[in-house]
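Example with several molecule types.
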Amino acid sequence: MKTTLFYLVWTILTLNSCKGNSYYSEKQSIEIQNSHDAFLGTISQYDTLLNNIQQKVMDVFVNCKMSKSDKEMVDLEQTLLSLSEHKSNGIIIYWYSYTCYYHSILLMIEKDSKGSEKILDDGILRLNKAGNLNSEQLALLALMESFSIQYASNIETPAISRRVKQNAEKALQLDSLNLRAYYVLASNDFYTPEEYGGGKKASAYLKKAISLNDQSIVNPYLPSWGKSSSYEMLIRLKIKQKQFAEAKKYYHEAIDLFPDDYMINILSKDLINY
Amino acid sequence: MNTIKITITIVFLCLVSVVYSQPFSIKGHVSDKQGNNLFAVSVCLYGHNTIGTGTDLDGNFTLKIQDPELIKNEHLVFSFIGFEPLKVSLDSINYSEPVNVCLDENVQALNAVVVQGRKSISREFSVKEMDKLKIYLSPLASADPLKAVAMLPSSTNTSETANPELRGSSANRTKIFLNGVPVSNPVRNSQINGIGFFSLFNPELIKTMLVYPSNPPLIYGNTSAGMIDIETEEKLENSSYGLSVSLASTGISVSQKINEKSFIQIYGNLMFSKGFLSVNPEINKQVKGFTSNDIGLNYHNEITENLTLNIYNYLVSESSNVVINLFTWSDNAIVKTIRDFSIMNLKYQKSKHYLTFNAGTNFSRSDFSFGNISSEFSQQQAYLSLNYKFLFSNNLYVQAGLSNESGNFDFNDTVPAFYYALSPESPSFQHDTILKNNLPESYGYLRWKPIRNITWGIGVRKKIDFIQGKNPDYLSIQTNLRYNFLNYHSLLFSAGRYNNITEPNSTQEEFRMLSADQIALEYLFEAKKTNINLAVYSKSEKGDTTGKRKINGCEIYIEHNITRSLKASVSNTILNSDIWSDDGFPDENNVGYFLVTTLSYFNPRLFNVSVAWSTREGKFYTPVSSSIYNPSIDCYQPVYGDKNARLSNYNTINMSINRSISLGKQSIVLYASIFNLLDARNPKNVIYNKDYTTNTFDYYQKRSIYFGCMLTM
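Resulting structure tokens for the full complex:
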């Protein structure tokens, strides 16, 4: 009797706990290993998958990096793709493409250039095909196109660079408070050599980006990336320009906001003597 | 074991009590005006952005509020990309029932519509879209927009000029529109190849160029072959300045931002022949001299959020002295021209409505002399159009408009009394002609995307009857269908009947009504590293002085990036063009095949080099078989023979090379080009002696070298 009561209470509490904390109850266990099969499940399962998806993609990326296998990433892409076929929605395509972007980075790190290019192209293609792109989709598209330059031929490079700029500017036309669009513009300027007109606007774009909220209203289904990366790039830019006082100022701001960010933390060694 | 179970149970019971003492839930559903469920809509408590949730895939949400005190006199805020945020008072909510909310599209969504609306309604039916970068990178186009068109497989130009001749049709059937206004005679000094910009258009001013090799969209009129639609820049990223010096010209260009909403672009060139002709003495035998001085201005201003103004003005003065052969007479043909054209565009947009007013004027005067021919020709033309576009939805656009093209053409000519007797001593007479015309038209065009991968367009254009004019009544109709499939593949079908009225010129002092029935099927494969275009078409053209013409053709074009730096392309056009009359014969440009192969090496750190080999069968011509002596003028009249004679095959290899050198914020581009690298003798026309008993050939351009540099700041 005691045992029965124990399991009864346990079950109720577990279920209740899941409902009441849907925001990130699944953080410790990303239920995507079987998610492709789980596609045949209920809407709530998809919601669970899409809830805080950005962090999940990052976690999958880290897992794959550690395990040196991209299986989890492939599974997540398959699940999102199946879901998008079932439920046509620009946000699902957004997250599919976002996953492709990280998958591409993963394969690049693993020196599989062809695989990296292929998955990146697929993400760009599907995002483009979504049509009538909103500000967030355009910012992601610009980011991915910018990343694709490394695989492009010399003849195509200027055209892609121009497209990156156009898409990021269009994203800002549609939403002037989109920090990710500013980040992509800054990144494009940052990596463009001075002789080709780069390096003039990155600082202004990055300062604008860090002044904006990563989301105007907290929404676990929508993107919030870009702020820590903007800080990191701004600090690197200031170090490159030998403006160490400013670099330190932004470093302290950044470390307060993102104390665990590896990329920001490693910049401390460049500032230690100033 | 029991102790552990009891402890865990107690802990969880405590938690249950905590959980159930706090929660306060608001449930609801969010949709758009069409009733579609909205996913990922942000739902939060006003002023508390961290107390929020998002809607699920079915548009449902559950917002849990831990502290009931927070909701007193408060609002829920619903917001989502592309929709107007909505505030709902919590006092008005019955918590026992779901809250149903409907969101309206907002300015962002409308902005997207506006951005979409600015594009040409027929854009998806163009076969090629080029921006300034593509023009610059087009191998051997020398940064000339129309030379870039001449490199396309649909170009069947046999004259080595930049004047577009597309899919076997003559140049007077194809129109070029700049910001919605037709530009006639778009080429200057075209016979002198290898010199700067051959067309009137500076690529720096160009935002997009859409090429329709056949089936021109009926939003524009007066064309019965192909059409090129050029739009100038609407936004200037940075101010920039350029200086150029070459073997035959010096130029300056200024692109200046006035403020965030307006800019001005000015360019000018002084062209001279001495340097070019001294480096190319072979050319000097035929080309005795040329000059061309021009200045262009483009001004753009966003007057208000909805209203933009663009003004373009171009002034050119040019002259040339070239030895030409006509019948049995060889002499210097001297041409002097001064020309000004202006284009003004007013664009007004408000949500899904898009109104444009275009106006253009063209004034020119030219003097021509050769043998006993002299001609003074002046023309004044005006063009007006009013266009209204309505975007019913992202999938359905409608555009309608009115246009009028008017012109005065004044010829004061001394012409030969006998067409074959052209020496200065031969008899001639004065022939003055004044021609006027008015061409009012109305049109409608609908573009619909019934399903995601299919776009359908239909257009109608008609001469307006209620305005008196000399032109016969006509109706142009067309339909286009585009099907995109398997990511990179497209099929494009177009068919229609088209009409145009030719402009009078020195060789044809009359308005001629031309018409054409056209049908074309194209296949496009546009992947990252490989592009393939296939096309088959059939045309039936009426109205030319030569008679009815039947044109059938097919094109194949393959372009592939072999490595990061190496790109190759091959194109071939099979063209069959016949004149239909009692004694039907092949048209001059029935050259069987046009084969063009290019190879480009592109390395910004070293240099860029492109080589193109063009070959085709020779043009058809009608040889003179005998002649009749006319003692009154001491000249022989030719008697023409069989119309099936063909000149020998055409072969040429052209090469261009350039290198960019960075000097901090400035850059210098050094460039050189060699036209007809192997100095092939390609016959262009037959030249006869005085009594037509022997003949030689006039050749296309022989080998010529050109080089220069350009400084950009």
